[in-house]
Amino acid sequence: MQTPLSVVTSEDHRSHDPEFDIYAGSVVGRFEVPQRVDRIRDALADGPFLMTAPSHHGIEPVLRVHNPDLVDFLSTAWKEYTSVVSDPQIVIGELFNHEGLVEGMPVGRPPATNGYGRIGWFCFDTSSPLSEGSWPAALASADIALSGVDGLLAGERVVYSLCRPPGHHATRSAYGGFCLLNNAAIAAQALLDGGARRVTVLDVDAHHGNGTQQIFYQRSDVQFVSIHMDPEWNYPWFVGRADERGDGRGAGANLNLPLPPGTTGDHYLTDLTTAIDSLNAFDPDYVVVSLGVDPAAGDPTAGLALTTEDFNGVGRLIGTIDRPLLIVQEGGYQLHRIGADVRAVLDGVGAVARV
């Protein structure tokens, strides 16, 4: 009988629920909605999964990865913003810090307390509005990832952390791309702090994990491997190319495998095999998988073409990795299939890995 796979999940994500996004030139309904978690949990209800609640870890593991100024801003953003803007629908920036703004001049600084003016210093896009409960949800999402770390350090082979909001676009000092805190990076650092020599973050979301790459780009103890849409065609546009290989002590510890629009399962699984070969050569003690199912055909934020059956193949390949695995939820924005796609990945992992 298969041992149940631990699924760490919480209701606390629901407090992050902005009313709308500004996306591709339009005010649109949210893609990153609370129902994403509901659909995933529904799909796992009849399988070999053990739902567990996260434990609280405090702010210190977050500060091991993120700039204290970012953490301070996120924790006070709603209060600061609403002290200046009366009755806002969302917290969103007006002006974003850009090197062209201060080219040839001092870098400048954000206003000391004005939340309306400060947001553009810490946020890098318009697709990441905040609501009153965004900070508690972000902190709970980090706790879900950290509770998954606890499971691995206690000897579990595979743990699935059902994180929301997602995290892989959040950099050390800024947030964006629906992501507030970088759950995968926080988990990788916690594994190192728990005694690991090396950790690999394998990112299979449709979008490049620019935040995870930035956080570890100059480090040799964390390898970052990402399969994603070519930034010539999709977010985050400015990073994620194949020639980004790491820098300084991290030279060679970064591998990007960009994909063209319309990539199907066969091509994707071939590149995933390449990614796993690189991972095995790095020889990590643990692997954190940033799992996005937005490579699915029809996803409104991407342009790849994987089927649910392909996601089972993704899971089976990931299951061949002979290290403890923490699977952290990232993207996937089709409510009618997100549950089936995540279930397909986890079933594939469970069919191969020694859970």
What does this structure look like?
By secondary structure, the protein is an alpha/beta fold. The chain has a single domain, classed as Arginase, Chain A, CATH 3.40.800. It is built from ten helices and ten strands. The chain has helices at 35-44, 60-63, 68-82, 115-122, 134-153, 183-193, 210-216, 265-282, 308-319, 338-352, and strands at residues 5-8, 21-23, 26-28, 49-52, 158-161, 199-203, 222-229, 254-259, 286-291, 325-329. The strands form two sheets. An eight-stranded parallel sheet has the order 4-1-5-10-9-6-7-8, sandwiched between helices. Helix 1 (35-44) packs across helix 10 (338-352), helix 3 packs antiparallel against helix 4 and helix 5 packs parallel to helix 6. It is globular, with a radius of gyration of 19 Å.
Number of helices: 10
Order of helices and strands: EEEHEHHHHEHEHEEHEHEH
Question: What kind of sheet is the major sheet?
Answer: 8 strands, parallel
State the secondary-structure class: alpha/beta
The CATH superfamily is known as Histone deacetylase domain
What secondary-structure arrangement, pairings included, does this model have?
Elements: E1 5-8, E2 21-23, E3 26-28, H1 35-44, E4 49-52, H2 60-63, H3 68-82, H4 115-122, H5 134-153, E5 158-161, H6 183-193, E6 199-203, H7 210-216, E7 222-229, E8 254-259, H8 265-282, E9 286-291, H9 308-319, E10 325-329, H10 338-352
Parallel strand pairs: 1-4, 1-5, 5-10, 6-7, 6-9, 7-8, 9-10
Antiparallel strand pairs: 2-3
